[in-house]
Amino acid sequence: MIDEKGILFILSGPSGVGKGTVRKRLFEKATDLQYSISMTTRDRRPGEEDGVDYFYKSKEEFEQLIEENELLEYAKYVNNYYGTPRKYVEETLAKGYDVFLEIEVQGAMQVKKNFPEGVFIFLFPPSLEELKNRILGRGTESNDLVLNRLKEARKEIEMMDAYDYVVVNDQVDHAVSKIESIIQSEHLKRERIAKQYKKILEDDQL
C-alpha cells in the first residue's frame, strides 16, 4: 500500500485576477482538498469559529510564532496580523490530504522561501485590459487607487518566473479544470512516487 503524503498547492496572482472565485469553484468540486486556515489577531466576529474560519491569537502569541518561524507567511493589515501556520499545514499534509492556499503574490514569495516543496500556480488575467476592467468593475476605488493596483499588478506579473504553473483565468470553469489537472499530474510525478516504491521494494523481502 502506497502511503502518500499530501501536497501543498499555492494559488496566487495579481489583485483583481479572480483568485477567490476560482478557489471557491474548485472547492465545490474537489472534496478532498483542505483549505489552509489562516491565523489572525483580529477579533472573532459573530458566528465565526476558532479553527474553522481562522485560528485566533493574541498579538503577543502571533509575534512569538513569527520569531519561532512557525508561519509560512504573514502580513499586517490595519493593525492586525494574518498568516499561514506551518504546523497546521504540515499536520494536514502528513495525514495524506492536499492543502490549498490562495494568497497574494508577496505572501506566495514568503511561502516559497519557507516551504519550497510547495507547488506554485500563478493565475493570469486574459489581458492587462481585462484586469483593468475587473479592477474598475469593482467600482469601489478611486482612480488613484485603481492606477496603483494596476502598477502593482504589472510588477506582480513580472514575478511569474517564481511559479511552477501559469493558468489563464479566461473562464472560471476552464481555470478550475486546469488546476485539477495540475493537482493530478503532481501526484503522478516520478520523484514523488519513486520514494514510496523503493520503500515497498525494501519491505518486500523476495
What attributes characterize this protein structure?
2 domains; 5-stranded parallel β-sheet; Guanylate Kinase phosphate binding domain; about 210 residues; about 20% strand; Rossmann fold
Give your account of this protein's structure.
With 206 residues, this protein is an alpha/beta fold. It has two domains: 1-33 and 98-206, Rossmann fold (3-Layer(aba) Sandwich); 37-96, Guanylate Kinase phosphate binding domain. 46% of the residues lie in helices and 19% in strands. The protein has eight helices and nine strands. It has helices at residues 19-29, 59-67, 86-94, 105-114, 128-137, 143-157, 172-187, 190-203, and strands spanning 8-12, 34-35, 39-40, 55-56, 71-77, 80-85, 99-103, 119-124, 165-168. It has a five-stranded parallel β-sheet, sandwiched between helices. The chain has a four-stranded mixed β-sheet with strand order 4-3-6-5. Helix 1 crosses helix 7. The longest helix is centred in the C-terminal third of the chain and has 16 residues, at 172-187. It is globular and about 70 Å long. The two termini are 17 Å apart. The model has no long low-confidence stretch (mean pLDDT 89). Essential for recycling GMP and indirectly, cGMP. Its EC number is 2.7.4.8.
